[in-house]
Amino acid sequence: MDVISLRREFHQYPEVGFTEFRTASRVVEMLTSLGFDVIYGKEAMDADSRRGVPAEEDLQVAYERALRDGANPDILEKMKGGHTAVIGVLRGKGNGSTVAFRFDMDALPIQESQDPDHFPQSDGFGSHYAGNMHACAHDAHTAIGLGLAHKLSKRDFSGTVKLIFQPAEEGVRGAYAIVQKGILDDVDYIFCHHLGTNVPTGEMYGGSSGFLASTKMAAHFYGVPSHAGASPEKGKNALMGAATALLNIHAIPRFSTGATRVNVGVLEGGTAANIIPEYAKMILETRSVSEEANQELERRVKHIIAQSAAMHELRYKIDIIGAAIPIHCDPELVAVAMEEAEHIEGFSSVNGLQESGALGSEDASFMIRRVQERGGKGTYMIIGSDLPAPHHHPKFDIQEEVLPLAVDLLYRIVVRMLSE
């Protein structure tokens, strides 16, 4: 299987969270052809636990686009409404443990660079979807997962392998619903990974720390419209309430117990200069190195929103649209990943725990936590790749030669963990 060609295919069809219809359809087809038992749609995720699901009209547009671009209509039928998780299960020749791997599939709402020095553009596999691109290597992660599936199809192991193809990692939205469905409840070991993240080609880390706990929220403020000149006192200004909340949220003090972050990324409302705004919307996030500190940040934010709404006599609603927790890698699995990487030509530097992460968040944290809570172990590996531009940048790209290295590493881990 040509994992690089697969990556280029996925790169051309970037689908944002919960709209990965074409990508997920291809994953189902390929896993099925390789002899995997495949679980997908509502069977793979708890529908009510999904966070930040796009509007129904956006889901429908993406669904129809996937059909036009060759997605299998029978497979897509089970994914309607954005149920795009796919789980491939393969049982080996004998009894043994269950090992899981997570691969994220979603793209970002970023317009990909059209410059001739951007390799996907110059080599003819740039994004076909205006405004969307794979700017965080999830196209490569999906291809790596299918490359691993191809090598595993020989079934030269004892036990069970679960390959988890996750939607909506961006915004830390998709993993929780898979966990709540019970997909991780029989897993003994879970290995997650990411390409790049400021680690150069040839280097790898058996584990990573530095991921922050995070909560993403959408706050809605509901007021009363009125004429801004003739009767302003008759209105209740939703945008004023949201603006009051914004200023006070950014005034929350930093914590002495560890790094914290808070940010209002979106504030919008109103319809015209002469109308008191009836509605306003705010999208924001909290982050901290400590799960407890993040919970306190979240509590304070919700209190500020409630009091700001009350000050302006507004109704309000808060939706949790994403969340993550810190990741604690098990040293035993960090060591396994390192030892297997040592056997692969192409890894020139093999390291233990990457302790200075990028201070981002990762919802594979919920998968790792669930496995650990039930007595298992997990780790989150970093596989290096030189990058011409940072993650989430219009010129983001990876060094494709690392893809077969990653497949070999994950395959060696399976053989190591599930040898008779």
Describe the secondary-structure layout.
Blueprint: H1 3-12, H2 21-33, E1 37-40, H3 56-68, H4 73-77, E2 86-91, E3 94-104, H5 119-122, H6 138-152, E4 158-166, H7 175-180, E5 189-195, E6 203-208, E7 213-222, H8 238-249, E8 260-269, E9 279-288, H9 291-311, E10 315-324, H10 331-341, E11 349-354, H11 364-373, E12 377-383, H12 402-417
Parallel strand pairs: 3-4, 3-5, 5-12, 6-11
Antiparallel strand pairs: 1-2, 2-4, 6-12, 7-9, 7-10, 8-9
Note down, in words, how this protein is organized.
- The protein is of the alpha/beta class.
- It contains 12 helices and 12 strands.
- The strands form 2 sheets. An 8-stranded mixed sheet has the order 1-2-4-3-5-12-6-11. The protein has a 4-stranded antiparallel sheet with strand order 8-9-7-10.
- The longest helix has 21 residues.
- It is globular.
- The mean pLDDT is 97.
Query: Mind describing the biggest β-sheet?
Result: 8 strands, mixed
Task: Output the number of helix runs.
Answer: 12
Shape: globular
Residues in β-strands, percent:
15-25%
What structural category characterises the helix and strand content?
alpha/beta
Order of helices and strands: HHEHHEEHHEHEEEHEEHEHEHEH
* Helical percentage: 25-40%
| N-to-C CA distance | 26 Å
Q: Please state how the strands of the largest beta sheet are arranged side by side.
A: 1-2-4-3-5-12-6-11
Count of individual beta strands: 12
Low-confidence stretches: none
Nearest-integer average pLDDT: 97
Q: Report Rg.
A: 23 Å
